[in-house]
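Input record (one chain):
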Amino acid sequence: MIKRLALTAAFFAAATVPAFAHLDPADNGSFLAGLSHPLFGLDHILVMVAVGLWAAMIGGRALWIVPAAFVGTMAAGYFLSLTGIGLPFVEPMILASVVALGLLVAAAVKLPTAAGALLVGLFALFHGHAHGAELGVAAALPFGIGFAIATAFLHSAGIGLGLALGSGTGLGKTRGRIVARVLGAGTALAGIALALN
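The corresponding structure, as predicted from the sequence alone:
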């Protein structure tokens, strides 16, 4: 089971790395444009996988509550954007989320589940708002459903990776935790690099 989760996580990570452009809804449909949207931005990929990895580090009910809080609050941010309600500092908050979530993983911070859900929800609001601003000619509902599903898949990849890294015993478990923390540090550094570009 753990090996399958790790393979699934690796597949999603490998499938998303080279993607840095968005699908045209006129050619591919609004749902597919939404489904591909989070997979075509490095900032989105890093945050979504980090949320899952961090949820796996916290463990227990956080495995589903933290990612669900992200997806739910992201949908609320999307709705705010569609209704014309603006949020300040959307792009800086998205970049801050990459750095912050990377640091939480790197430091293996274990907040209570409710606090973790609140924190990721704050960042998700800005991610959702950005998705709404990038809607273009796509139909709102299928686009929104598509990016929510893709986000959940990226969270699942992070959870699978986190569970796989923490599943060993003794020295293997210690190495897995070190790898997870290194991935978190790499995420934070990538966020800083994105902010400086």
